[in-house]
Amino acid sequence: MIITFANQKGGVGKTTLAIAFANYLSLFTDKKVNVIDFDFQRSFYRQWSEDKELPGDYLYEVEKISEENIHLTQNEKILSQLKAGEEIFLFDTAGNIQNNYTQVLQYSDVVVIPFEYSNVTMMSTVLFLNLLQLIKVNAQLFFIKSNMRKDDHYELKSVMDDEFGKLGTVIGKPVFTRKCLLQINTKLLTYEQKMAVKETFDELIYHLWES
């Protein structure tokens, strides 16, 4: 199964949520997780590499995409095998649209799209959704409300929820801004980190495997 975290808009917490979800699946489900960092900033892979100095075992392996191995993610046979397998292959993709990962999107079973309620995010996400339609992505789309603040009022909430809901599933439970998530690593979830994402990820997992 291929799960891809993606959005053209940077700064919406995509890699943080990808790390948290990989950790959550590894710790609280029976899913075997493999991570492939397709962002040439290599934020996920860099965090994983730095975590080598922390106590404890890794929860999963992370492979970075480089010029030497990028051809593997453009091989339809390999992508078909990843898609058909029981293990989870989680791709963290770049914030900007790159032609070299369109095949990953096309072969994805699920695309998770973190977003914020702002004009800039709405326009950028709509452009990204148009790209998905243009390249005929048939994956299930799940939208996660990220970096929300409990006391803030979001004028665009109903508009964006309605528009995104026409194309996929808007996860009801948001991920609120939490300092603990800024300190996330790839070896564990603290109690605070777990509780910050639990309701959101439990809802997503329900849609993926239990509904």
TrEMBL record:
<feature type="domain" description="CobQ/CobB/MinD/ParA nucleotide binding">
    <location>
        <begin position="3"/>
        <end position="119"/>
    </location>
</feature>
<dbReference type="Pfam" id="PF01656">
    <property type="entry name" value="CbiA"/>
</dbReference>
<dbReference type="InterPro" id="IPR027417">
    <property type="entry name" value="P-loop_NTPase"/>
</dbReference>
<protein>
    <submittedName>
        <fullName>ParA family protein</fullName>
    </submittedName>
</protein>
<dbReference type="InterPro" id="IPR002586">
    <property type="entry name" value="CobQ/CobB/MinD/ParA_Nub-bd_dom"/>
</dbReference>
<dbReference type="InterPro" id="IPR050678">
    <property type="entry name" value="DNA_Partitioning_ATPase"/>
</dbReference>
